[in-house]
Structures are given as structure tokens and as C-alpha cells.
Amino acid sequence: MLSDLSVPVLLGVFALAAAAVVLASIRATALADVIADRTKLGEAMAGGLILGGATSLAGVVVSVSAALSGDASYAFSNAVGGIAAQTLFLALADLLHRRANLEHAAAEPANLFQAVMLIILLSLPLCALSGPDIAYLGVHPVSIALFVAYLAGVHLSSTVKEYPMWRPVRTTETRHDTPEDDEEPNRSVRGPALQFAGLVAIMGAGGYVISLAGGQFIERFSMSSSLVGSLITAIVTSLPEFVTTLVAVRRGALQLAIGGIIGGNTFDTLFLVAGDIAYRDGSIYHAIEANDVYWLGTGLLMTAVLLAGLILRQREGPGRIGIESVLMMGIYATALTVEVTG
Question: Which UniProt keywords are present, listed alphabetically (predicted)?
Fold first, then answer.
């Protein structure tokens, strides 16, 4: 569909699709906060389940489209590259929250548990690609295990939210997750939910256009699938998470900001499940490149550092941001250098 377009027009279409996804995500953030208040779901859970899943839709469309076209590296790198980029966004958001380290202020058991689940989910593909090359009906057994583990994690996350067995120590910098409007819980959630669904459709359509444009970049400019997936489409389709994180921090919805990133990353692991199903030439885990595995390790390492920061809850670090934010930026910069120079 985009193959007949000139390069300037192709870039223009790519930019318009990215803008549509970003603008839709800005409004979706505000609606997610309202839905969290009216359903009493809580910002951390709303960020992880509602906002995280919605803003990840464009990315999953890219991975599925790439897998259907037979490009396993493009599909895989888009998923794991997006997880690394979105974790980086929390470090950048920490720069904006000047009162204290963001991970300190947004203490929430649900976010800790989701970070643990993300590490587990990212470990499963490592097991798959280092194990035997097997597939049943074109799907690797680890993809089934990953999907089941995700569902179990969502259930357990809600349990942690509703019946926490421990609570973080409250300090003067800890931001409480309370409704902005006392009347919010008594109002109907239908209107915001319908608006939110419409915005999700826009983000999905934008993701499809972005996936097609990314394929053209690979074909026309002889770029590697790993480079396009991890650094172009992954970052562009992750922009909603960046925007929603910044908007949430500015609104003071800190649990929503962190929950949206961690929950979105958790949802993004399902890109691999969808990609494995869509990829018809066997197991997607055994059709990827070395750089794709490196980005998987980068996402795993950055998540572990983030989890350590959420537990440590450092008030201030270098430049008034947490040491975990500094480390995450350094890890991502290293991965970027390896991808570009490799």
C-alpha cells in the first residue's frame, strides 16, 4: 500500500501516523485516571491493565504485521526494543519530578509485583531461544507458557492491590493514590470508557500504518530488521507511553505513571506470543538475530534495576534523580551504541 509512495510522502505518512497515536494517548491518559477513580481500580492497576494495554496496541500491530510478512527479527526486536525504550522513559520522567526520586514518591506494592512478573516473562523467551527448536502448529510451547503466566500475573496483581500483605513506609514525599474529585467514584464510567475505546482504535490503526512504513524502510534503505524494529518502530510506537508518563507525572498521578510503563511492558511480552502465532515458518525464537537477543537482555537488566530502585526508594541521587534512573539511561545508551555500531 505504501510501496508506490515517494520517500518524502512516505515519511510524511509515517509522521502523521505517529502523531495520531501520540495525540490519542494524551487524551487516553486523562480518561484512564478518571476510570481508575470511578471504578476504584487504583492508579497502579489502571496504569498496568487499562492504560498499559491500550498504549501498547500500536506496537503489537507492528509485531504481528512483521511476523505475518515473515520477518521474525523485525517482529521480535520491535517488542523487546519497545520494552527497553519504555523503561528508559521512567528515567526521563524522573528528571521532571523535582520534589523527590519518582520511584520513592510512587511507592505501590502492585508496581513491585508487576516488575517481578515482567522479569519472569522476559526470562521465558531466553529459555525458548536457548532450548530446542520445536513448534507445534507453528507455535513454540514457551509462547503458551508466557501467555498463561501473563494471565496469572494479572490476577495476582489485582490480589496484591486489593489485599496487600505489606505496605511501603509513608514519607513526606510519598504521593497517595486518592481520587482527584470526591464525587468521581459515584459517577458513571460508561462515557469515559467509550471515549477510551475510540482512542484505542485510533492507536491501533496508527500502529498498522507505522508497521507498513517500517517495512518500507527495511526494503528501500537496506536497513537491518533489528535496527528498524528496536530503534525506529519500537520507539515511535512507544511514544504513547512516554507522553502518558509525562502527562501522568504532571497531573501528580505517579502510581499511574509507573504502573503504565511496567504494565505496558508486561503486556508487550505478549507481542512475542502474537508474533510467534503469526510467524508461520516455525518458532520465532529460533529465527531472530543476535542483536534481538541483546535487546531482550537489555530490557531484562533495566527492569531489574528499576525494581531495585522501587525497593530502595532513594530520596535523592545524582542531579536529584534516583541512581536507578542514571543506571537505566547508561544501560540504554550502551545498547544503542552496540546496535548502531554493530
Answer: Membrane, Transmembrane, Transmembrane helix
Question: Count of residues for the chain?
Answer: 342
pTM: 0.83
Single-letter amino acid code for the residue at 215: G
Cβ atoms of 240 and 58 closer than 8 Å:
yes
Determine the 3-state secondary structure of 136 from DSSP: strand
Please name each of the domains of the chain with its CATH number: 7-165+182-341 (1.20.1420.30)
- Count Cβ atoms within 10 A of the Cβ of residue 273 and give its class: 0-12 exposed, 13-18 middle, 19 or more buried: buried
CA trace torsion 281, 146, 265, 54 (10° rounding):
80
Phi, psi at 164, each rounded to 5°: -65, 135
The rounded distance, in Å, linking the Cα atoms of 97 and 341 is 33
Q: What is the Cα–Cα distance from 127 to 44, expressed in whole angstroms?
A: 29
- Taking the CA atoms of the chain, what radius of gyration do you get in angstroms? 19
Amino acid at residue number 342: G
Distance separating alpha carbons of residues 186 and 318, to the nearest angstrom: 43
Q: Amino acid identity of 116?
A: V
Cell numbers describing residue 198: 475510540
For 70-104, how does the pLDDT look when each residue is reduced to its tens digit (9 = 90+)?
Answer: 999 999 999 999 999 999 988 888 777 666 566 65
